[in-house]
Specification:
The complex is a heterodimer. Chain A is α+β, with helices and mostly antiparallel strands. Chain A contains 9 helices and 19 strands. Chain A has 2 domains: 160 residues, Rossmann fold (3-Layer(aba) Sandwich), CATH 3.40.50; 110 residues, OB fold (Dihydrolipoamide Acetyltransferase, E2P), CATH 2.40.50.140. Chain B has a single domain, classed as MetI-like fold (Orthogonal Bundle), CATH 1.10.3720. The chains are: A alpha+beta, B mainly alpha.
Chain lengths: 370, 303
């Protein structure tokens, strides 16, 4: 029944109750290649006890690959994964004892909600009385006690999601893995479930690795965000750091810096304030990495482009206006033909001429892309 | 009521709307007519005709044919003979198909290759396969010569013109059918379910027992039914590869002899009715068992 894979660990090693003495999960240079294509290249990351880490990136960036490698659903091509001093990348998924929430929930359609949640406990041979008590607790935690005897097909998407979460955490895993758990829900439910996830995490304090392509989700849930692109780590940092100080242009683009303006720097610098000119405008910005004199790229978030700025800005003509409820999203074109996106609290009309301005600390300057 | 009377235009519009919808539904139902006609003309009418014919024996009372069938050992025993061939063949077919299809559930080159290979015996038909087997399994065939050359047998093993020839031929023609059916049921089960079970601590055996088997049960029941019906109505291989006078005198041979050797169509119809009844009982039993299991989509949520 057990395959020829070495070495078969002792049965009791898999799930340690109450998270056990688990300290941290370490990924060392974890690489996964499919044929010749490298899906994940050398991911090194340490997840501390109780930490909520989000893997963020566009589709195909390797974030789900990373999660599947940690779960054991995909073997790693190179590198190693450690749970404290125990090497786990050689273990089968059923021997790792992590809880996983799947994108499509993967609830067992032929089992009631109670059976679904109790499945992990049954596999671990938890005594029936204790299992019942723990399933009841989990049902209460996700507020589904009255649906315990229903089949998954009789539940709404949000309820199914709660069952999936309860099923993953009821075994008290040292680590909870979530693969885009909210992406199949509608916008309103998604925000509700996000709050719910945050609450559950705060209540249980389980270390969590959460995969998403939604930056809002990543920022609102995570203690730390890992931004991935093309299988490589672009930045690891707190949500604030990733949001306000993207490590490179790719991260900046992904974090919503929609204005990327080719300009020229007046002087080379290691970082810090820099004067920029070009495209008929002059700006002051902050270099994020060492830059040379000459061509650079300035990244500005639409929110940071003030459209009623003082006299020192530059002029843009309004091309189109989108009403967003709280404010207006405005597309502008400068005299030199530069297209910019900004936000305005005041109603403006196409054809209006506005003075644009951005605080030097909010104009992020990066070296040109090769 | 008052609301309806103060707002007659709204009401009449909704009436017109529902009337149009009903009419539309009726017109859609008309599309069933050609299909229903074919079923009635080609299946129900001959069936009813045969049923009535079976109650109009050449001589004797209304039930004479059935009485003859159940009192003549040579006729009555064909039920047991046929079951004795069809039930093992069905169990072997589905029983072999399940583990092999389960191993091949991941879409791979092997799955496609084997699928293509297995379609061939289906397309060839039972007669060609039976004739091929006749020489292959015969005393001078490759199979026996290999056995003797390898020293596994001292004399040719008799595998034709007896029970084993028929069963083997039913397995060879029936297995691909059962395999393809079971494979399609297995690949319809979301692999994420097994992955989820694995992360929850279920090993390969537990995943099969708790996830795949219960979700497959309804499909296996259908595969069993269809395989059984196919095997029970065995005729060509029972004649060509079996001993149609004795051990493999199956019920369809009895019906054939009644119709085309004795020219007693009424008796033949009665035998066909008995044959249908036996099949119906077995299929109903399998489907009743199926009702015990979950029957619904084999996916783990909103896809």
């Amino acid at each position: 029944m057990r395959g020829a894979r070495a070495p078969a660990p002792p049965r009791e090693a898999a799930p340690s109750p109450a998270g056990g003495a688990f300290g941290e999960l370490r990924l060392e240079e974890v690489t996964r290649a499919f044929g010749g294509a490298v899906a994940l290249a050398g991911l090194t990351l340490t997840v501390k006890r109780g930490e909520f880490v989000t893997l963020l990136g566009p589709s195909g960036c390797g974030k789900s690959t990373a999660l599947n490698c940690i779960a054991g659903l995909l073997p790693v091509t190179q590198g190693s994964i450690w749970l404290d001093d125990r090497r786990i990348d050689v273990l089968r998924p059923e021997e790792r004892g992590f809880g996983m929430v799947f994108q499509n929930y993967a609830l067992f359609p032929h089992m009631t909600v109670r059976k679904n949640i109790g499945f992990g406990l049954a596999m671990r041979r938890v005594p029936r009385e204790e299992a019942r008590r723990r399933v009841d607790q989990a049902l209460a935690l996700v507020q589904l006690a009255e649906h315990a005897e229903k089949l998954p097909g009789q539940l709404s998407g949000g309820q199914q999601q709660r069952v999936a979460i309860a099923r993953a955490i009821v075994v008290q895993p040292p680590l909870v893995l979530m693969d885009e758990p909210l992406s199949n829900l509608d916008a309103k439910l998604r925000i509700e479930m996000r709050t719910e996830l945050k609450r559950i995490h705060q209540e249980l304090g389980r270390s969590t690795i959460y995969v998403t392509h939604d930056q809002d989700e990543a920022l609102s849930l995570a203690d730390r965000v890992v931004v991935l692109k093309d299988g490589r780590v672009q930045q690891i940092g707190t949500p604030e750091a990733v949001y306000t100080r993207p490590a490179n242009l790719d991260v900046a683009r992904f974090m919503g810096y929609r204005n990327i303006i080719p300009l020229a720097a007046a002087a080379a610098g290691e970082g810090g304030p820099v004067r920029l000119t070009g495209a008929g405008i002059a700006l002051r910005g902050t270099a994020q990495t060492p830059i040379g004199e000459g061509p650079v790229l300035a990244a500005i978030r639409p929110d940071d482009l003030e459209l009623d700025g003082g006299a020192d800005g530059f002029e843009g003509r309004v091309e189109s206006v989108e009403y967003c409820g709280r404010d207006y999203l405005v597309d502008l074109v400068t005299a030199s033909g530069l297209r910019l996106h900004g936000r305005s609290l005041r109603r403006v009309a196409p054809g209006d001429r506005l003075r644009c301005h951005a605080a030097p600390s909010r104009v992020l300057v990066y070296p040109p892309e090769s | 009521m008052a609301a309806v009377e103060t707002n007659p235009p709204g009401r009449s519009r909704s009436d017109a709307w529902s009337a149009a919808k009903t009419a539309g539904a009726d017109r859609t139902l008309m599309l069933l007519v050609p299909g229903a006609l074919v079923v009635i003309l080609l299946f129900i009418y001959p069936f009813l005709y045969g049923l009535l014919l079976s109650f109009a024996p050449k001589a004797g009372s209304v039930f004479a044919n059935y009485r003859t069938f159940f009192t003549t050992p040579r006729l009555r025993d064909t039920i047991a003979t046929t079951l004795w061939i069809a039930v093992p063949a069905t169990l072997v077919n589905v029983g072999l198909a399940l583990p092999i299809a389960y191993r091949m559930r991941r879409n791979s080159r092997w799955q496609r290759l084997l699928t293509a290979l297995l379609v061939i015996p289906i397309t060839l038909g039972t007669v060609l396969v039976a004739e091929g087997l006749l020489t292959y399994l015969g005393p001078q065939g490759w199979f026996n010569r290999t056995l003797i050359d390898l020293g596994l047998a001292s004399a040719p093993v008799r595998l034709t013109h007896n029970y084993w020839g028929v069963v083997l031929s039913l397995v060879i023609t029936g297995f691909p059918f059962a395999f393809l059916l079971v494979l399609s049921y297995i690949t319809g089960i979301d692999p994420a379910l097994a992955q989820a079970a694995a992360t929850l601590g279920a090993g390969p055996a537990a995943r099969f027992r708790h996830i795949y088997l219960p979700l497959l049960a309804p499909g296996l029941a259908i595969a069993l039914c269809l395989s059984f019906v196919q095997a029970f109505s065995v005729f060509p291989s029972a004649v060509l590869l079996g001993a149609p006078a004795g051990p493999t005198r199956v019920i369809s041979i009895a019906a054939y002899q009644a119709a085309f050797e004795d020219y007693d169509y009424a008796m033949a119809s009665a035998i066909a009715m008995v044959m249908g009844a036996v099949q119906l009982v077995i299929v109903a039993a399998i489907l009743a068992l199926r009702g015990v299991f979950y029957r619904g989509p084999a996916a783990g949520g909103k896809g």
